[in-house]
Each structure stands twice: as structure tokens, then as C-alpha cells.
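User: Okay, second chain of the day. Same drill as before: sequence in, C-alpha cells out.
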Amino acid sequence: MAVLPRRSSERPTSIPVEFEPVIVKFIEDHERKARRLKSANKKWEALKIMGLASGAREALTVLDKAKRGWFGFDRLPAELRELAAMYERKSRSGLVGRDNDLEARAEALRWSASVATQYLRKVSKGSAKAMGMMTIMERQMDRMEAARQAAQQANQSKSDFISRMNHELRTPMNAILGFGQLLEADDNLSDEQRENVQHILKAGRHLLQLINEILDIARIEAGRMDVTIEVVDVGEMARDVAALMTPLSADRSIVFVVDPTCDGWVLADIQRLRQVILNLASNAVKYNREGGTVTISRVEQSGGTTRIMVTDTGNGIPRERFGDVFAPFERLGAEKTKIEGSGIGLSLCKKLIEAMEGELSFDSELGKGSTFWVDLPTADPPISSTLRTTGGEESPTFFADKEQFHGRILYIEDNPANIAVVRRFLDKVKGVELVTSSHGTKGIRMAREHSPDLIFLDLHLPDISGYDVLEALQRDKLTRQVPVVIISADASEASTRRCIEGGAKDFLTKPLDMQAFYDALLRYLGVAPARALG
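Assistant: Same drill. C-alpha cells below.
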């Protein structure tokens, strides 16, 4: 970087002499503390402390610019504040919101700005002009701090709204889909009744997908969407998507093709990328013509990026509507047809890809079809050829066999409808006793008294949280060996991680997938093959 000459009108004050040692000591102290935390395997605490040290180092870099005459020393606090604000914006953007290091850097830079302000006041020696400038700067800093606090409060309010709505919307869906799945498994239904139940489940699942997509968009906008970047096998993922789409495409005689060029690797969150490609493939089928084709392909580009393309042979999109494609709830006229959809899928896909530092775009020609593509960083092949897969052995169909489970289940849940769904399911299972509690404290007591073989636990309880219940169960030598499975509408990655790290064996989300619930029974109560029918 070029060194600019100092302007002749500026002369250094004593601020570098007094300010610099304080910052250097701050860095040394925090780096020493971070090393201790890291050696104690407290990596997240160490990351925060190292972020503070890194922010202070950047403060020294800004000071060095002032020394070289890039700006006057009286501008130093404002420059530090502006850099802190930049890091805060990044930490809230959703692109890097998961990185606590950025928030720590901003905190250290604000502290450095405060120290610089104190020294500027000291060296001004009461000069009327200097004191006037200091007063203006302090007012600007106060306004910046007020704006920062207002933004944090708004961000926290949005996060609270997401958490509350996630629970309030998903909980009633648990009763709708839970009882619907139980009815669907009843062999005594007539054909007409079974068709009615299937309509209920189809509509319920469509509503659940809409809820999930809206909440995902809100999480991204609040900077609360976590992504885990790893090496992803594009070919394997494309074949998984094709397998899922085959029934839908076969109904309309649409040929689904996974091009051999798909074999390759990118850096992405595998679950989120699969969600995006599945959405693009679903659209390619829904808006295609009878007997058309859908192709997933891949091409490596210059600049170290890979493009994954989903191409259809549908009617295409008018060029004058290109600007509306990624607008939320915009369906480009499809709302007048029988094609189902909400119009927020593509908007969510774009935000998800941007959260992975990629790009989603498209091209289309009327009468010939459309191609949507995702650009992501290219990755080297992993050393091991065994990567994450979505599959494995298929789960058994519940109520398929007549062998018994054995054991007592304690279900700590305050919603009567949720308890009823589980009770009806277990009524069909031999050898299982169900006891319930609607309060956390009572549930802890019942766990000690009834010696259950398995505990199902909700996180939102009227007296104490499910996290507190889990912690108490893990502390007690009488209950710590009992497997705990969380059943909650709070399906965030942070909640799941917190529960598993707290000792839970599994996490099931509401609305409850009865197959997943059945599989949990197999794992913790089953006598192999342990499938039962009441």
C-alpha cells in the first residue's frame, strides 16, 4: 500500500505516545487469555477473546495511517468507530452472522475509540477550538452509539419474533399432521376416507413448507441463519434430488436427467444447497410441459467457481418479467393456474445461496424453457471418497410387524393435543406404559419416582424451560442414564446443538413425523426388530 506524505499543516500530538502502549497491552493480555482458553478446549470463548485482540490490532493499523498523514489525529476516534460499525453490519448481514469474531472486533474498536477520545481531550489542553471539535465528535459518537443500540434492539426483536412464531405456528400443525398420519395408518378406512385424509395431509404439509420458508427468510434477514460450509459432492446431491423428483416427474411423463458433468465438488452447506436445488428442480417439473425434460448439469468456471444448472423445457419467462422472478410471493401469473406454489421459494433460495457466499441467477427464452444456476466456490476432492449422504437404509414402516416394545415412557409436555397424538400412537404399541407431566418441575420429580426407560421432553413449559429440565436430569445420578429425546417446535440449529451438547440423545421437530418418532422407539425401547402393532 502506498505511503502518503504527511500534510505540512498537520503536526503529530502526543497521542501516539500515550495511546499506542495501552492498545499493545490490551492485545498482549487478550492473546495470552485466548491461549489459556484454547488449551482448556474452550474454543468458542477463545475465538471471542482473539476477536478482541484482532480488533485492537486493527486500531493500531488505523493509528499508523494517522501517523503517516492519511488523516488528522482528531479524526482517529471517528475512524475507529466507522470501522467498528462496518464489522457490526457484517455480523448482522446473515452472510457472516455466525462469526462471533466480527462482533468482538467491533467491540475492541469501539473501546479503542473511547481511549483515543480520552487522550485527545488530554492533549487539547483546554484549547477552545480543540474542545469544540471534541464536543462535536463526542456528539457524533453518541448518535452512532444510539443508532447501534437501536439496530441491536430491532435485531433482537426480530429474533424473538422468529422464535415465538416458530413455536406458535408449528405447534398446532403437530396435531393436524400427527392425527392425520395416525389416520392414514389405519387399515379400517374406506377408500373415500383414506383419500380425504391424504388431502388433509397434503394441505398440511404444504402449509408447513410455507411456514418454514417464511421463517427461514426472517432468520436470514435477522442475521440468524447458520450455515456450515463443507466440501459437497455435486453429483451425489444431484442424484439424490433426481430420486426424490422421479415420482412427480413420472406423473407427467417428464424425463429427469443428471448429466455426467455433475461429478465434482463445491464449498457449501450441504443441507441448504440440497434445499435450493430441490426447489429449482421442483419448479422445473411443475412449470414444464407434458413429456418435457429436466436436466441438472455442472460446469467449472474461471475464478475458482462452479456453476450448477437446472434446465427445463417449459414455456419460459417473458423478458419483461425477469425483474420479478426473485420477488417474494411473485408467481408470474401462475397463481391463475392449477399449479400449486406460494411464490417465496425462489426468494428464499437466493438468500440461502448468498448466505453461502454464492450467486443464484437464471436465463429464459419463451417457448424453449429456462435455466436457473447456482455459482459456488469450487472445492478440491476430499481425501476420503466417503462423503455425507442423505440416505442409508430405509426406515421401517411403523405398525408393520407385531413384535413388542418394552418399557415406560415419560412425556413432559404441556399441550394436551400433542400428548394425545403420542398417546394414540402408543395405544397401538404393545408393552409400553406412558406417564405424562405438563410441568417441568413435576416431570423431574416423576423421572425420579417412576424410573422411565425413555423420556420425551418439550422445551417450552409453563414453569421452567426444557433446557433446565434436561440439565436437572443430567445432574441427578438416578436419571442421567435415561435417554432423553427432545420433541419441540423450536427447530433452530442453535437449539438442537444446545440440547445435544446438554445430554439429549435425539431431537425431533414438531409437527412430529410419526416415522421418526417410531424410529426413536426402535432405538431406545425396541427388542430387535421390535416393531409392534396394537
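The longest helix spans residues 128-184.

User: Thanks, on to the next one.
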